[in-house]
Amino acid sequence: NLSEKLERSFKLLKGEGKITEINVAETLKEVRKALLDADVNYKIAKNFTDEVKKLALGANVLNAVKPGQMMIKIVHDELAKLMGGTMTDIDLKGTPSVILVAGLQGSGKTTFSGKLANHLKSKKGRQPLLVACDVYRPAAVEQLKVLGASIGVPVFFEEGSTDPIAIAKAAVAHAKSKGYNVVIVDTAGRLAVDEAMMKEVTKIKDAIKPQEILFVVDSMTGQDAVNTAKEFNDRLDFSGVVLTKLDGDTRGGAALSIRSIVDKPIKFVSAGEKMESLDVFHPERMADRILGMGDIVSLVERAQEQFDTEEARKLHKKIAKNQFNFNDFLSQISQIKKMGNLKDLAGMIPGMNKMLKNVDIDDDAFKSIEAIIYSMTPAERENPELLNGSRRKRIASGSGTTIPEVNKLLKQFEETRKMMKMMTGGGKNIARMMGNM
Ligand code: GDP
Ligand code: MG
Questions:
Q1: I want to staple 212 with a disulfide (CB 3.0 to 4.6 A). Which of 2, 48, 53, 99 is the partner?
Q2: Which atom of ligand 1 lies nearest, measured to the CA of 216?
Q3: This prediction's pTM
């Protein structure tokens, strides 16, 4: 999947503190490919990667994460932003609030109408009324009746009527008189956009003045979904999009394309034929899906939380003045431990894998390092220059390690300190240090 590809393209850059022009170009090629695979329109994919490039080149990579992972996060956040950033709720103003459902035949309008009624009834405590306005296929009315019965929501229909506009008007009047507070109008679709369908649905719109016009689109139709969305929007000026059939192989690229082209929020996603399988649309979750990633984003966020603290700023100063000492080292270790399971995190930290190669990674991984440091006196920790031969011998026996082990740690510590000082502006935590070991 994409996140693996991204990591691979960054393999050579472990320990690099900044995202550079070269690795950005490489990665963005992968991103663009993945977007195209996910059915994102070519132009949109290109604009998107141009934007990410700008952001990535300016970004300071947290030392706790690999540039590749940072890159994934930038891509992820930008994807979510493109899809609207935050969730947009359905508008239920009006008594009743009237919702018109439109889209091509087979896109999932009738199924969605049922799901929405179920959602509003069970999650929002509403009393919905479903309205069958597809008068062309007798089976369509029957289908809605069956769905309505299964979720306990009444269905308004007019036997033998061929006038969907009249049905819609009568339904709203019926809802008013009977106290239904949401009216969901399921309409007829055609296999392709045509004038008759557009005229009809526009007339229904004018007759009942809905608060919400939801455009339903099959996410598996890929690029076509975008063209259809544009045509419906030009005629209907809909208020939101519903993506259906996300339970298939589709990666949801349509969500990105549609949002970029019509600039209307996606409000629901539907995945499955069960009445319960409807979700309010969350841009971040769709970004996860498009990227096909696990929880790298949350790992990066955890790392950010832990390192982006006052502590880190203080440390930074110390490093600049070459005052970084073993107490700081200890506190960095405990910060890393706080971040959670070391097994998760070891892979995120440049150099950690190498260092812990032969260790069964758990919280014991730092034990001997900690033991050595704890065997130092406070003065020695503050001032590692004090550590002469006899002190080192004492520390080795006190910590249950050997003199070569103590020497090795001290040598690494010294080197790291030098390097940290050299890169004031960058090095501020143990991850950097580990990366150098
Ligand atoms: P309409 O013509 O727009 O009213 O579409 P329908 O609601 O009748 O749905 C067309 C077909 O797609 C039916 O067989 C539905 O069961 C199926 N369908 C609708 N929504 C979904 C979905 O989210 N996932 C899957 N797998 N099938 C769906
Ligand atoms: Mg239908």
A1: 99
A2: 3
A3: 0.66
